[in-house]
Amino acid sequence: MRRLALIGILTLSLGPALALDLPTRKAGQWELTMTFEGRKLPPQVMKQCTDASTDKLMNANFGGSNEMACSKQEVTKTGAGYTIDAVCTFGDMTTTSHSVVSGSFDSAYKIEMTSTRKGGPQLPGVTPGAATRMTIDAKWLGACAAGQKPGDVTMANGMTMNVLDLQKARPLPAR
């Protein structure tokens, strides 16, 4: 359970990279491998079943953008892909990130992210204020597995959740 909480915290820092208007990924089963440089944490693997309508929602839920306030989100199209520079706040944690996205949203892509955090919970093995580096390697595996539906995310431990269900379970914003 502690590992899931840690993955959740780390995944929140992906918000600037994932929640922006990048091209829609090819529908089907995607495998994402997150590797953390300089950390005593093994690569984390998840599989996502996506279609055009759930892709943007999936990235928003796992990127945390629904809870984040970003004072800066700059996406620049480059010859090889995209660069993304962002400053986002989640509670008492502010993350500044620079990401380079390359590859194809039809077959395989890579996100290389460097980020720094201020505030928030102390992460084991991370010096406060020091830059951290993470790479996400994503590859399209084919059609979603039998019994899966768009929006399903399966963690390495076999736990599956659906972003559409998560969206329905969110409390409505106060007016």
Structural features, described:
There is one protein chain. The longest helix has 12 residues. A nine-stranded antiparallel beta sheet has the order 3-4-5-6-7-1-2-8-9. 19% of the residues lie in helices and 44% in strands. The chain starts with a helix and ends in a 6-residue tail after the last helix. The chain is α+β, with helices and mostly antiparallel strands and 175 residues long. Helix 3 packs across helix 4.
Using brief descriptors, characterize the structure shown.
175 residues; nine-stranded antiparallel sheet; globular; disordered N terminus
What shape does the CA trace take?
A: globular
Mean pLDDT: 79
The sequence of SSEs as H and E is HHEEHEEEEEEEH
Q: Estimate what percentage of residues fall within beta strands.
A: 35-45%
How do the strands line up in the largest sheet?
Answer: 3-4-5-6-7-1-2-8-9
* Helix content class: 10-25%
Tally of helical runs: 4
What's the alpha carbon Rg, rounded to whole Å?
A: 16 Å
Q: Termini, distance in Å?
A: 34 Å
Describe the structure concisely for a colleague.
This protein is α+β, with helices and mostly antiparallel strands and 175 residues long. The chain has helices at residues 2-12, 15-18, 52-63, 163-169; strands at residues 28-37, 44-50, 69-77, 81-90, 93-104, 108-118, 132-142, 152-155, 160-162.
